[in-house]
User: Fold this.
Amino acid sequence: MFETLEKYWNDGLEPTMVFELFNQGLTLGVGMTAILAALGVVVCSSPIYSALYLIGHMVCLALLFLLYNAEFIAAVQVVVYAGAVMILFLFIIALLGAKKEELKLTDITLERFIAVSFVGTLFCELLMTLAVGETKPVTGAMTPEVLQQVGSAKAIGLTLFSKHLIPFELASILLLVATVGVICLAKFQVKPIRRRTR
Amino acid sequence: MGTTFILFLSASIFSIGAIGFLIRKNPLVMFMCVELMLNAVNLVLVAYSKFLQSMDGQVFALIIMTVAAAEVVVGLAIILTIFRTRHELNVDHIDVLKG
Amino acid sequence: MYPHAWLILILPMLGFIFLSWYGKRVSKTVAGFIGCATIGVAFLITLTLLAGLLISDPAERVGNVQVAYSWLNMQTFHLDLAILVDPLSVFMLLVITGVGFLIHVYSVGYMSEDPEYARFFSYMNFFIFSMSLLVLAADFFFLIVGWAMVGLASYLLIGFWTHKTSAVLAARKAFVMNVIGDVGMVIAAFMIYDHFGSISYAEVFSAAPAKFMANDVDILLITLFLLVGAFAKSAQIPLHTWLPDAMEGPTPVSALIHAATMVTAGVYLIARCNVLYMLAPYTLFLIASVGVLTALFAGAMGMVQYDIKRVIAYSTMSQLGYMFLAVGVGVFSVGMFHLMTHAFFKALLFLGAGSVIHSLHEEQDIRKMGGLARPMPITFATFLIASLALTAFPLTAGFYSKDAIIMHSYFSEYGNFVFWGLALLGAGMTGFYTFRLFFYTFLGKSRSPEAHPHESPWVMVVPLMILAFLSLFAGHLAGWVNEFLAPVFGGHVPHAPHDSIMEATAITVSLLGIVSAIGLYLTGKNQLEFVKTVGAPLYDLMLNKFYIDELYNFFITKPMRVIGKFFEQRAEREGIDFAIDMVGDQVREVSRQISVLQSGKVRWYAFNTVAGLILVLVFVIFL
Assistant:
């Protein structure tokens, strides 16, 4: 971003560049919002707030998807994720009662220390992969022009039903299995488990 | 914005999700954190779909969403069942399945 | 050319499948009808095959292979699912399905009281299927398949009454003995494949004469290993001990499997492989010697037994010995002819014995019978005919076949005077034991007054009458059989020269046996006791079946037991078991300690997952 700004500084501003600048600023802003929303999910002691933050996070991601020319995925993200799945979450929370969790972030227990150090290590390692630098854009079959012409949904459909047909079918089977599993879980009464004493 | 930013963003979200999963005790919130991690991966897939100018990434993002939906549904059903039998929701107390 | 020959295999198989699945649900009438009808239709089909062969040119009668499909096709090995329709297999099929049908019909009456009626018929159908497969096989592979399957059928049927311990033990014994034979057959098949690169009859038999000189070691070995199978299946010395015990099964089984068909498979095998055996005169000599010895020893053992079925079983062994003698001296069609007549009169004897046993409520000891001629006239008459045929009384079927064997044992190319003399002695014994049995059973006074014998129902009597008719008149088919089978055996068997003195001797010796039986058993007890005292050692030996079971027990079973016990203790308990227990214990101990890791707490697992992820990333990034 800053390189672009520098270039603009040197070369002067043009309308497309303005658009691009705006675009990049938007990406940055939305990305940061997404991170904040994610943090909100983790730190809120009430599950209902967590869920609301998660919805916000997903909407942010949907925006990012839009910025990356993936309109169809963005729509699915909003409809399925932020819509259906999160509504399900909210229902369950409403059903079970939104009990607050004892969550004092200032307390540093051993458990939290280990968790943060583990994930910190993980994060550092992930960042190390950035050391390889910027990925150069590759020219593939789906250039922005082609995508513009075909449309995001159709392009996905073309790939999904030709190249990735088997994963697609497997995913459908997965959904079927999940449906059956949920019906079983909901239908059969489970007896209270008594702890085994040994 | 380039790949570096996206990778950084994704890594951050993933790590936040992981921390959340590790320190929270409410299974619902843990599930949300899992969703966070899955979304982080989706983000990379979609972004790289643009950089590599190929639809494969988006297709996989779609499939991951399917998996996530299935997982959430089954997971929530399990949580509901556990709640029905034990009347509490603290993962630390749900430890019957031990060796 | 004869594709409908497949039906002979398919029909009994369908009957078997149907009766095994639905047998318990259908009524006895339906089960019996299906059991008989499948075999009856198979017999009719066999008749059409016979007609087809008779109207065709003699040269075209052999080698009609019906290929269903190519079963296995490798570069060096080819196997078709095929059957061979030629005079020999059709001849055998006539006996199998014809006599088999009569015995099935008889069983409808004999087994009518049995609760597991359908199971019996399903096994019988399975046996007919296996036996037909054995004789119809066009290569050694399916021959062995059929060979093993008739062994299985025999096992199942001997042990049909599973509540009888003795029956189960006898079934096991028969199975083990037969498996020894199967192993021999399989080795022979391997050797044949090794030498000829094929196991189909046509290729092997056409290539054999050019490939081997007479008495080559290889051809001797092949024929000897085949012979192991033949001896085991046909109960020849030294693999004969299973046949008398096999009489524990139901009587129709004894008639069908252990007299008429399965036990003659050994003779069929040698006749089928006549090309190979003609190349191995030494083996032929062995066959003839073993055959004549078996005829003698079995006859001797049969002379002193008191169980009606065992006596007949020993006579079966003895007659099989004659058949082996016939094929051993190279007169195959004579052997096959005796096979046929023997199937008639021996099945008749067994069925008659079954009729007697049936009416006396499972009594098998001939000392408790007697005086049955009056209450059971038809059984009496047919049994008499069978006995006469068995002793080769002039003008019965047995006379034509057995007399031919005895004559050929001297006049044939491979025959000699010793064979003739021993065969003659065996014929005398045959007369003796057959009529001893007959007198004990039917004449004199009833020895168990409380029994009320009665004639058997018609469904049992009619097969007896048909078989009696055949036993009387089948002898006239001798020339026809010789003619019919000639293409398979590469030519006619020349008529033995007429030597009236020798023929008269043969008849006299047979009659002498009958007369001595009359003398010992009809005139009074004194002579019998006298003979028993005089020949005490010999009598003892014969009564105990020459102690062969005991010899096997002492030389094979006992050492095996000792070795087994040793290994059970040292190798099994202290070696293998100990080692395995140690491994198991250690694994359990270690897992018990590791299982602490499985705490059941989800977040603990999550920690481990993250740790694993970190390690994986370390590998990805730094290595």
Summary: Chain A has two domains: 1-100, 141-191. Residues 140 and 169 of chain A are 26 Å apart (CA to CA).
